[in-house]
Design goal:
Elements: E1 2-3, E2 9-13, E3 16-19, H1 23-36, E4 40-43, H2 47-53, H3 57-64, E5 68-69, H4 74-82, H5 93-107, E6 110-115, H6 120-131, E7 136-141, H7 155-162, E8 167-171, H8 176-188, E9 192-195, H9 199-204, H10 212-216, H11 220-227, H12 229-239, H13 242-253
Parallel strand pairs: 4-5, 4-9, 6-7, 6-8, 8-9
Antiparallel strand pairs: 1-2, 2-3
Helix pairs in contact: 3-8, 11-12
């Protein structure tokens, strides 16, 4: 078993690393990244990420460099158990955001929101400022993002850098948020860049999360599919079943350590 940059035990599912850490441990690890001023990326791999990593080299490279990789998705958690190195708990980006922002408000961390549909990050900012006195959300940006643009020529990156954030919540969806974060890490250091997917939509109240029983039963994908069938059908029904083949191959090879 290998170690992550934070010296956490690290396994692999498919071609992606996952850190063996519980929920509080994940929050503490992010705290250490912030306090150390070393920057870095935090990603939350799910079934779709494992499948995409089979075919996208840039995505794999971004994950390989992640300071922290947290299991998002009950099926991936179950897979770790089948592979005989069980992860302690599911830690999705959506679960992580509010506890993380509460810590940020308590400890004076500066936060930036990147991504979401126009107006969503601003709405999330307003709601959080009302709910968390002292939270420092130093900026939002919903600009169109081009992951192929060099970091030193990227105006969005420069706007974020000028606000001097400690945390950047990157809500661009995979694989864009992971690739963008990886290629901007050095430019935005010491900020910690965290891929959060649709989390800003949940904070803003634009979308509702699945009931907890569906998440526990590994059915959160079905709830989201019912909400957005046109956008998510190809992902969940055509692409993601490959996860079963990836897991089967890994079981036959008998290895899930980095």
């Amino acid at each position: 078993m290998s170690l992550s940059p934070l010296a956490l035990p690290r396994i692999t599912v498919g071609k992606l690393p996952l850190d063996v850490v519980d929920f509080e441990g994940a929050l503490d690890a992010i705290d250490r990244l912030i306090r150390s001023k070393s920057g870095g990326t935090v990603f939350t791999p799910n079934v779709d990420h494992v499948v995409m990593a089979e075919h996208d080299e840039r995505f794999r490279t971004a994950y390989a460099a992640a300071a922290l990789s947290l299991v998002d998705g009950t099926p991936v958690l179950w897979a770790s158990r089948l592979l005989r190195t069980p992860l302690p708990a599911k830690i999705s980006g959506s679960d992580l955001v509010m506890p993380l922002l509460r810590r940020a408000s308590e400890r004076g961390y500066r936060v930036f929101f990147l991504g979401g549909a126009p107006g969503v990050a601003d709405l999330a900012k307003s709601k959080l400022e009302a709910a968390l006195p002292g939270i420092q959300i130093v900026g939002t940006d919903a600009s169109r993002i081009d992951v192929n643009q060099p970091a030193d020529a990227d105006e969005v990156t420069e706007r974020i850098r000028r606000t001097e954030p400690d945390i950047v919540l990157v809500a661009l969806g995979a694989p864009k948020q992971e690739i963008w974060s990886f290629t901007r890490t050095e430019r935005l250091k010491p900020a910690v860049l965290i891929g959060v997917g649709a989390s800003l939509d949940f904070v803003a109240g634009i979308q509702k999360r699945a009931p907890s029983w569906m998440s526990t039963a590994g059915l959160e994908w079905l709830y989201r599919l019912a909400q957005e069938p046109r956008r998510l059908a190809a992902r969940y029904l055509l692409r993601d079943p490959e996860f079963c083949l990836i897991l089967l191959r890994q079981l036959m090879q008998g290895s899930n350590t980095g």
